[in-house]
Please model this.
Amino acid sequence: MRYQSTRGKVNGLSFREAVLMGLADDGGLLLPETLPRLSSGDLESLYRLDYPELAFQIISHFVDDIPSADLSRLLNRSYAGFTHPDVTPLVHRDGVYILELFHGPTLAFKDVALQFLGNLFEYLLEKSGQTMNIIGATSGDTGSAAIHGVRGKKNINIFILHPQGKVSPVQELQMTTVTDDNVFNLAVDGTFDDAQAIVKEIFGDVAFKNRLNLGAINSINWARVLAQVVYYFYAFGRLRRETGCEKAYFSVPTGNFGDIFAGYIARSMGLPIHKLILATNENNILSRFVEQGDYSLGSVVSTLSPSMDIQVASNFERYLFFLLQRDPEAVNKAMADFKKDGRLHFSPEQIARVQEDFLAQSVDREQTLATIRDFHADTGYVLDPHTAVGVHAGRCRSGGEYPVVCLATAHPAKFKEAVVQAIGREPQRPESLQGLEERQKRCRTISADAAAVREFIEQNAC
Ligand SMILES: Cc1ncc(COP(=O)(O)O)c(C=O)c1O
Ligand SMILES: N[C@@H](CCOP(=O)(O)O)C(=O)O
Model:
């Protein structure tokens, strides 16, 4: 499999090269040149596999430059530390199927891909004898999952930018209490969008990127999206075995458009997803896009689901590439227009095509709290606020003819403030969070300025 950039100037990369490049050197995002299309016979045999074996089968379609035995070993190691034997179990409550993606070390869906990416980086660096400096932006979950994926690893330093005071207290502690020498937390005076823009600007300086061998752990890295594709297959397989259904809806709480884009890839490979339901909080540029073709920038507002407090969704560019018929010139123009005007225009035909893939719903604070409260009252199950956004949207937008799978993207204990508001008590605290407040912390505050961040990285690079 070869990889190409959405902006057309980087082509013919191998999987290894794509993973190590992260953001394409022309500023675009990397995608496979073709997508495999699986037959119904192929799909039925995948549905019988356990999680690591399924991950191996799916990921192998996209990787031809890592020996199979090594890839299989990396995947087995990545999922061995999950606390549930199914890795991402599917549970049925009150008419919806909840795909629990929070059984990894940091209790969010990011662990599914970042345990693998951490191991993959280590493997590739061992082979090449290089060192790597990872840089990433987080609205709370990617940061801790990436840090836990690479903490203490030889030859890797990691620099994580989070918006100061805008992540949940538990998320902040999960990052800042990791004091290994190779981990650097930077609290940026700005929003997640500011932090992500800084990361992209630094990657855009290709000479600097190559000199420090910068690595990307955000979903700009294709390996992140790829590892997330797997659980759509896993969930549908379990659902089909349980209900015999022909198709399903998937409702996905969305911020940076990475998780739902992984669903789009799974659907494009032939997985029978009827529609992907894109669920946003009040930062609803993406749901406005799907529903009305209105892709116009607003300012970021703080919500009960802080990890989705995002306006400029990185992976939107990948979807745009497909929507614009894989035309890199059209993507370049659209990205330049968006940078200049803060909005994009789409024709009615284009929006009709979008709506063949997606439905969308924006969910506000009251609806989020009511969903947590009512779901708990009816089932005893505690949703985290991001998952609640997805459950509400899934219920509103699905048609009833197929089951609905809602992606449970985080454990409620990461967002206990919202849970207490909804049900009047704290969720149970998993063992990995015990004693978090008492641990030693390390974090520097930094202005939202790429030059300052670059200087810090330069001084602390490995
Ligand atoms: C808990 C949680 N849910 C949902 C999302 C949204 O996922 P994505 O950014 O891939 O759209 C995030 C952040 O990425 C998150 O941390
Ligand atoms: N919600 C994310 C934002 C970054 O998204 P990513 O999937 O591109 O890493 C977070 O928790 O940091």
Summary: The chain has a mean pLDDT of 97. Residues 108, 139-141, 219, 253-260, 307-308, 386, 409-410 surround pyridoxal-5'-phosphate (ligand 1) (CB under 6 Å). The longest helix spans residues 222-243.
